[in-house]
Amino acid sequence: MNPADAGSPSGTLPFPVEGGQRVLREILAGGQSFLWEPITATTWKGIVGKHACTLELLSDHHLTWSASGSTSSKEDVKATIESYFATSIDFAREVDALPWRSDPVLNQAVGQFPGLRILRQSPDVALLSFLLSPLKRIEQIRAGLLEISRRWGEALDHGLFAPPSWATLASVPEADLRMCGIGYRARSIHQSADYLSQQDGYLDSLESLPTDEARRKLIALPGVGRKIADCVLLFGYGRLEAFPIDTWISRHMRESYGLDSFTDDQIQLFARAHYGSAAGIAQQFLFAHARNPATGSEVDTSSDKRKK
């Protein structure tokens, strides 16, 4: 890999992306984060914290990274990058514990996206991202977030901008937010920013709370319902038991599991009982599969390869 700048912190992440380019695209641009864009089929640029980062997928499916323009030590940058990619979690073990052996729907989804993992973003970025999500496609969410960041965020290297703080957004009139093409979502962002800028440490305090209590605290924020709260819990707080239900998942669960008469609340109960403590990982496989149904393949259950 050629780092963007000589002397930039760089390294290799300690896991392979088993499914190669297709799975890497799903990790970075499949609805978890909205701050990455491809440079080539195997190279991506994006933002982790306050770092402008470049990723390169090697032939052995490992990822190298470099972070440019950072004033932090290499050790601190490395820790930030590894935290973002949740390297402390053994995703192979978590996936292996899911009921894919007896569930043909999940089996096909897992087989289609080997190596899919959940990112661990900052709660602030996750909340801002998913406040943009109601009735929006992934590309539209990304466009809105990038425009907000360009207007009011911190400039990084390579033309990238970190998302702004809640204090900064609280000072932005709702009308100006609407000029970013986000419509009525501007009100929720403005009101949440106003509240969070006056409640120092509100989102940080949720780290230590049980998931159900943290969810209630998130839902108390303007514009946050169950789906957005669960997205923030899963992608911002690493609560793998959270199971966000959007239009894709709601339809996919009803059609694939015969849950036609189930409400979303009932689907939540089904997911918790069926998938267990890593229901959020199952959700991400199902979300990827629902949007890309034609390229599915099944996990080979004749040998327990997934345990290796």
TrEMBL record:
Stored SUPFAM superfamilies: DNA-glycosylase, TATA-box binding protein-like
Spans traversing the lipid bilayer: none
Keywords: DNA damage, DNA repair, DNA-binding, Glycosidase, Hydrolase, Lyase, Multifunctional enzyme
InterPro entries xref list: DNA_glycosylase, HhH-GPD_domain, HhH_base_excis_C, OGG_N, Oxidative_DNA_repair_enzyme
Annotated HhH-GPD domain residues: 131-291
Catalytic activity entry: 2'-deoxyribonucleotide-(2'-deoxyribose 5'-phosphate)-2'-deoxyribonucleotide-DNA = a 3'-end 2'-deoxyribonucleotide-(2,3-dehydro-2,3-deoxyribose 5'-phosphate)-DNA + a 5'-end 5'-phospho-2'-deoxyribonucleoside-DNA + H(+)
GO molecular-function term, one example from the UniProt record: damaged DNA binding
CDD domains: ENDO3c
Group of enzyme by EC: lyase
A biological process term (GO) from this entry: nucleotide-excision repair
EC number: 4.2.99.18
Classification via SMART domains: ENDO3c
Pfam family, one: OGG_N
Family assignment from sequence similarity: Belongs to the type-1 OGG1 family.
Protein name (database record): DNA-(apurinic or apyrimidinic site) lyase
